[in-house]
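Worked example 3 (structure in, sequence out).
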């Protein structure tokens, strides 16, 4: 110990030399002096570091605080119970009887009626693609729109203003409009659930009856037509079934993962079935369609959606809404809110860090998207430039 002390003294500069001379003094005096000596060194360097470093640290936490919490999510949040994934068999040349059999179901003599119900905001192009994809299998389209976003901003009735575009669905359409409540500073999820309750009413008005199939999904969660066809033709399918969709961002160029599960299909039960967008069962039918998030034609649509949707708190800085930045982010496949991947294990977070790599496959996409390529080319791989709108 003495030797250690001596060694330390040798390294000190002039200011502390007297401390070394007091080597034979009492232990208390010695350590007191050493403390003083340490504090003096502290004065010069550490204080500077503290004065400059601390504000920088606070600034970095301010900029990236949300990222830090997301990165640490595996520590503070357990992953949800895994789904029971039902294998999905499909090829266009296999008979329905055999497809049902492959899933352990029996084929019906007539298909069930199918109701497709959505809460509409402004995604006209995606709605067009969705309805054309589902059209051969849907008995009734149900659409509700509001003059308020979930975040309480006034919004135009985009569907009503463009209704003539959807002439092909008119004879099977139940349309509803609900006035927003425009409550300032309220949690956006309240307005959202208010609109979903109204949608429940509209579905009844559309004439749904027990054992009809009801699709509950956001407009941009598009079940593939053949999946709906399978479910309407087979008996014994689960009462409630989530649909696993392929997650895309901005267009079908950026394939993120196949973890979208919120879409669901229900064998309707009067008084029991409620329109919801959360987890309702453990069963998940694999590979049943596409979820194209933020798949917009105009930069202005991106700005609108960023402000309108329920996670508006993610706009931490005004410049997030800058059109040039948004265009740049879209072409890179990066995150509009500069957030980390929302995952439950470090392995998955790290695997997904950075922009989404481009895919060069446009195989197995909604048919109408490829049929109308002149109109919808911006959703295909390699066409990330958007009009300003
Ligand atoms: C698939 O079915 C279509 C129409 O039923 C038929 O024309 C075609 O030859 C079939 N293809 C194969 C590979 O069996
Ligand atoms: C929203 O719609 C309701 C019902 O039509 C109407 O009373 C209200 O004035 C509208 N609000 C705005 C801000 O347009």
């Amino acid at each position: 110990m003495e030797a250690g002390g001596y060694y330390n003294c040798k390294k000190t500069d002039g200011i502390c030399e007297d401390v070394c001379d007091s080597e034979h003094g009492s232990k208390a005096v010695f350590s007191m002096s050493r403390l003083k000596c340490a504090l003096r060194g502290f004065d010069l360097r550490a204080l500077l570091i503290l004065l400059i470093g601390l504000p920088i640290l606070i600034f970095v936490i301010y900029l990236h605080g949300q990222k830090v919490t997301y990165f640490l999510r595996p520590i503070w949040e357990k992953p949800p119970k895994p789904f029971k994934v039902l294998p999905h068999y499909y090829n266009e040349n296999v008979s329905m009887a055999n497809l049902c059999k492959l899933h352990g179901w029996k084929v019906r003599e007539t298909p069930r009626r199918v109701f497709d119900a959505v809460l509409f905001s402004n995604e006209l192009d995606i709605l067009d693609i969705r309805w054309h994809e589902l059209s051969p299998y849907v008995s009734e389209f149900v659409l509700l729109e509001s003059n308020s976003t979930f975040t309480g901003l006034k919004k135009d009735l985009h569907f009503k203003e463009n209704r003539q575009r959807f002439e092909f669905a008119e004879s099977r359409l139940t349309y509803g409009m609900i006035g927003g409540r425009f409550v300032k500073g309220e949690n956006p999820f309240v307005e959202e659930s208010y609109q979903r309750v109204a949608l429940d009413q509209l579905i009844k008005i559309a004439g749904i009856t027990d054992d009809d199939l009801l699709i509950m999904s956001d407009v941009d969660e598009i079940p593939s037509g053949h999946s709906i066809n399978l479910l309407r033709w087979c008996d014994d399918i689960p009462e409630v079934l989530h649909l696993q969709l392929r997650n895309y961002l901005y267009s079908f160029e950026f394939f993120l993962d196949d973890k979208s599960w919120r879409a669901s299909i229900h064998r309707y039960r009067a008084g029991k079935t409620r329109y919801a967008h959360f987890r309702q069962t453990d069963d998940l039918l694999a590979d049943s369609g596409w979820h194209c998030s933020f798949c917009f034609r105009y930069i202005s649509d991106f700005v609108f959606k960023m402000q309108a949707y329920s996670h508006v708190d993610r706009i931490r800085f005004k410049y997030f809404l800058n059109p040039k930045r948004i265009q740049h982010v879209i072409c890179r496949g990066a995150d509009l809110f500069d957030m980390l991947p929302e995952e439950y294990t470090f392995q998955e977070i790290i695997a997904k860090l950075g922009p989404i790599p481009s895919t060069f496959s446009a195989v197995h996409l909604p048919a109408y998207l490829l049929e109308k390529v002149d109109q919808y080319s911006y959703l295909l791989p390699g066409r990330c430039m958007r009009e300003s709108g």
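Notes: The chain has a mean pLDDT of 88. The two ends are 76 Å apart (CA to CA).
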